From TrEMBL:
Lineage of the organism: Eukaryota, Metazoa, Spiralia, Lophotrochozoa, Platyhelminthes
InterPro entries: ATPase_P-typ_cyto_dom_N (IPR023299), ATPase_P-typ_P_site (IPR018303), ATPase_P-typ_TM_dom_sf (IPR023298), ATPase_P-typ_transduc_dom_A_sf (IPR008250), P-type_ATPase_N (IPR032631)
Subcellular location: Membrane
GO molecular function: ATPase-coupled intramembrane lipid transporter activity; nucleotide binding
Example of a GO biological process term: phospholipid translocation
Gene Ontology cellular-component annotations: plasma membrane
Record-given protein name: P-type ATPase N-terminal domain-containing protein
Keywords: Membrane, Transmembrane, Transmembrane helix
P-type ATPase N-terminal domain span: 162-207
Listed PANTHER family: PHOSPHOLIPID-TRANSPORTING ATPASE (PTHR24092:SF175), PROBABLE PHOSPHOLIPID-TRANSPORTING ATPASE (PTHR24092)
Pfam families membership: Cation_ATPase, PhoLip_ATPase_N
Length: 766
């Protein structure tokens, strides 16, 4: 089994003795080969809490570099002064057959390594590297301004359609009917073999070879013809796939201001334009990038899978804009019926105006604002969050229907901008063959030059011309003809039959891959498919195999396993239905967890220590997990993009702090209402329900390496919780002693995701 441990450090109010204990706990987990995570707390005033919220919301309304700088400043204020508090752990299990796979890889001559950081527990085995596609286009500095269906105002009716943006056609094919021959020939003669054969065919105009030109040129033309036909057939398949994608039909909501009607029309995906309002249903792929206006149900939730974008198969939850959900939700519920309006002024609640950034390839960033009008006639900017955006390629999952405003189409979509440029792909076999044939060509030229020189010398030394024949001195062209004659002989180093054989074997191999019954999965009805004949070229050429441990070599089914709270001695280990409290023997610091002595044990349902329950409350609040209730509304399941977060929330629920509900609340865009059920003894008569409000979430990113939530507690206090990587979290800690302790733990083990929190108290009214 693989253990992933998360640690929690002590707060700055702790004594030096507590800090010493923190060092011991971190080191003990490190010696056991465990990874760490940290939670923290800090006390501030109520005014500062709301000041932080206002500063963040104001920063969200800006664009470009000003937005980035404002958000960085806001995040720094929110996360400054965090004080470390305590420590937790998650356990994962290796996939069956991993060790057997390692042995078979080594037996095949493939280098495979296994790093063991804990006895009988593999920390790192193989790593699978995913290359991020190169960003093709730099983001334009301009800001887009779009109205829904181009309707700017109704009194008077003013239309401003967005006609200056690209269409939504998807083109993955490489050729058209008019450039196929020319472009394909240009690509074919990039191969050294074809260039060599063409050059030798051209030399037959100046000299006679050992074989006739017909016997040499015809096989070369046959080889070229086979390759051209092969490329043409595969490009026809690409055209067909493009037509299937572009001809998918979607329902579009249109405003008929002349007849005061809301009309549903059917349009193909290729005809969609920026500013239109598109309806998508369950199991349907999103045709372009959309800002969510409404969804079925009352929670504004849109559940998606993004395997086509980031390879993740987990279900993600996005949300419709709160300002548009009510009005457009009514229209969505009446589909497919058109709506008759009394007059043109009834279009006013449906006016949608958005400003947003130019297209770019970053899948995790979107800057935009929804512009609404207040009762005083002033504009109000509502930030459009990344959770309000759905991207082309995502698939709607178990959601009845959604309405979205088109913001990016065609090549401007994030999926297209992350795709590689279309062009001729050369397999590794072709690259190696070109290199080898280049060496043969250079060798042939050297042999021909050597042969020409030696033949000239031999002719001069052994020329025995009769006296009655007038001898003519050799001309320059005679030397060229001699060189060409030797070239005809040397060309057999690269026989044309070799190229024909390679082309035919690739066709046969691709056919065998496609029709191999061993590749067929009867459960899903899917089999192998060689979309390119060059696929077979890449088989059997692996030198190094890298794979990450989470979800690839493990089952990705993590379990909350341990925690250590620094205001208490020892480590709490969650072992099934028991919670065991472990301590190291006196005078023996820095020992492995497995070598500690058990000091106490509690069964699930018994009263756990108060400070442990308080910490589990923080765990149940600091996350982005969503709840799902079954039909009988008794069982609650959790969904999260991170299996670590899910494991922590499930662990807190098992031991008495149950996250029973997560809902959006309309007062704050992006805000969440979390309902916790506190039942430490599993006695239903003693269960208490508490509501917590998350006013803002600073999401995890690769630079900050931490996430933060701002939470209002039911007792009137205000809290900020944060979790992230140790290297970044240490930058916002108060105590230099705590930083020293964490740096010491960093030397003990490789990587440690951490967490932090802080409490914000209201102003005293006295």
């Amino acid at each position: 089994k693989v253990f992933f441990y998360f640690q929690i450090q002590a707060c700055s109010r702790s004594t030096d003795e507590h800090r010493k204990k923190a060092l011991e706990r971190v080191t003990e987990l490190g010696l056991s080969g465990l990874r760490t995570l940290v939670y923290s707390t800090r006390q501030v005033t109520r005014d500062e809490y709301y000041s932080l919220l206002r500063e963040r919301r104001q920063a969200m309304k800006q664009f470009g570099e000003a937005r980035v700088q404002a958000l960085n400043a806001s995040n720094e204020r929110i996360e400054s002064g965090l004080e470390l508090l305590a420590v937790t752990g998650v356990e994962d299990t290796l996939q069956p057959g991993v060790n057997e796979c390692l042995e078979s890889l080594k037996a095949a001559g493939i280098k495979a390594s296994l790093k063991v950081a804990y006895p009988k527990a593999s920390n790192i085995l193989l790593a699978k590297m995913r290359c991020c596609p190169r960003l093709r286009n730099k983001a334009d500095a301009s800001i887009r301004h779009v109205y829904a269906n181009g309707l700017q105002s109704v009194e008077p009716v003013t239309l401003e359609p967005a006609d200056n943006f690209v269409d939504n056609r998807i083109v993955s094919s490489r050729y058209t009917w008019w450039n196929f021959i020319f472009l394909n020939l240009y690509e074919q003669f990039h191969f050294v073999s074809n260039f060599t054969f063409l050059s030798l065919s051209f030399l037959y105009l100046f000299a006679q070879g050992a074989i006739s030109a017909f016997a040499y040129v015809v096989p070369f033309l046959i080889s070229l013809f086979i390759t051209i036909v092969k490329e043409g057939v595969y490009d026809i398949f690409r055209h067909r796939r493009d037509r299937r994608v572009n001809n998918k039909r979607f329902s579009v909501l249109e405003f008929d201001t002349n007849n005061n009607r809301l009309v549903w029309t059917e349009r193909t995906a290729s005809s969609l334009r920026v500013g239109q309002i598109v309806r998508c249903v369950a199991d349907q792929e999103i045709p372009c990038d959309l800002v969510l206006l409404a969804s079925d149900g009352c929670k504004r939730e849109v559940r998606l899978t993004t395997a086509n974008l980031d390879g993740e198969t987990s279900v993600k939850t996005h949300y419709a804009m709160n300002k548009t959900f009510k009005n457009y939700g009514k229209i969505l519920s009446m589909f497919p019926n058109d709506m008759e309006l009394d007059d043109v002024t009834q279009f006013k609640p449906l006016l949608v105006e958005v400003t947003y950034e130019a297209p770019h390839a970053d899948l995790n960033r979107f800057e935009g604002n929804l512009i609404t009008s207040t009762s005083q006639g002033t504009e109000n900017l509502v930030p459009i969050l990344i959770e309000n955006l759905v991207l082309r390629g995502a698939v709607v999952h178990s959601t009845g229907g959604i309405l979205g405003l088109v913001v990016y189409t065609g090549v401007d979509t994030k999926l297209s901008m992350n795709s590689k440029k279309r062009g001729r792909k050369y397999s590794s076999r072709e690259d190696k063959l070109n290199f080898v044939l280049t060496l043969f060509l250079v060798t042939s030229i050297l042999l021909c030059a050597t042969g020409t020189i030696l033949a000239t010398v031999w002719n001069k030394q052994r020329s025995n011309v009769p006296w009655f024949v007038s001898a003519r001195p050799p001309t320059r062209f005679s030397y060229v003809r001699l060189f060409i004659s030797f070239a005809f002989i040397a060309n057999f180093l690269v026989p044309v039959s070799l190229i024909i054989t390679i082309e035919l074997q690739m066709l046969v191999n691709s056919y065998l891959i496609t029709h191999d019954p061993e590749f067929f999965d009867p459960e899903r009805g899917l089999g192998g498919s060689a979309n390119s004949v060059h696929l077979a070229d890449e088989l059997g050429q692996i030198e190094f195999l890298f794979s990450d441990k989470t979800g690839t070599l493990t089952l990705n089914q993590m379990v909350f396993k341990a925690c250590s709270i620094l205001c208490d001695d020892g480590i709490y280990v969650f072992d099934g239905d028991e919670v065991r409290h472990l301590k190291s023997e006196s005078g023996q610091p820095y020992v492995r967890v497995t070598e500690m002595q058990q000091s106490n044990v509690w069964s699930v349902g018994s009263a756990l220590p108060v400070h442990l329950m308080e910490f589990l409350t923080v765990v149940a609040l600091c996350h982005t997990v969503e709840t799902r209730s079954s039909a009988d509304e008794e069982d609650v399941s959790f969904e999260a993009t991170s299996p670590d977060e899910k494991a922590l929330v499930e662990g807190a629920a098992k031991y008495g702090i149950v996250l029973s509900s997560t809902n959006r609340y309309p007062e704050v865009e992006g805000g969440r209402r979390l309902v916790l059920q506190r039942n430490p003894t599993n006695d239903m008569n003693r269960t208490t329900t508490e509501e917590y409000f998350v006013d803002a979430t600073v999401e995890f990113d690769s630079n900050r390496k931490r996430m933060t939530v701002l939470v209002r507690h039911p007792d009137g206090t205000f809290h900020i919780h944060s979790k992230g990587a140790e290297s970044k979290l240490l930058e916002v800690q108060v105590s230099s002693m705590v930083e020293l302790l964490c740096l010491f733990s960093l030397k003990t083990f490789l990587s440690s995701p951490l967490a932090g929190s802080k409490q914000v108290y209201p102003l005293s009214t006295s």
